[in-house]
Amino acid sequence: MQSYLLLGVLATCCLPVWAKKQNITVKGVTMCDNRPMKNVHVELYEHDILDPNDLLSETHTNSSGEFSVFGEEDEMGTIEPFIRFTHDCKVSKP
């Protein structure tokens, strides 16, 4: 039992040492029916398997539909970023 406790304490203390800071910048333009979409909520996340995904940054698009988000995270492996857009684009399919 004591060896498992010691192993848990060591793992908790040493994991941050092995993790490395990684960052990402995403720039883009949101469009709806070939028109820029303003005020779209943009969220940059980092995917995690064992715990909830990490919100790295969030912003809103400007009047031209442009956005730029930067985020960084300490991870042992490679970060797995993804973007979530919250919008109200309603385009009917042809």
From TrEMBL:
Any one annotated GO CC term: extracellular region
Pfam families from the UniProt entry: TTR-52
Signal sequence range: 1-19
Cellular localization per UniProt: Secreted
UniProt xrefs under PANTHER family: TRANSTHYRETIN-LIKE FAMILY PROTEIN, TRANSTHYRETIN-LIKE FAMILY PROTEIN-RELATED
Membrane-spanning intervals of the chain: none
Protein family according to the UniProt entry: Belongs to the nematode transthyretin-like family.
Alphabetized UniProt keyword annotations: Secreted, Signal
Protein name (database record): Transthyretin-like family protein
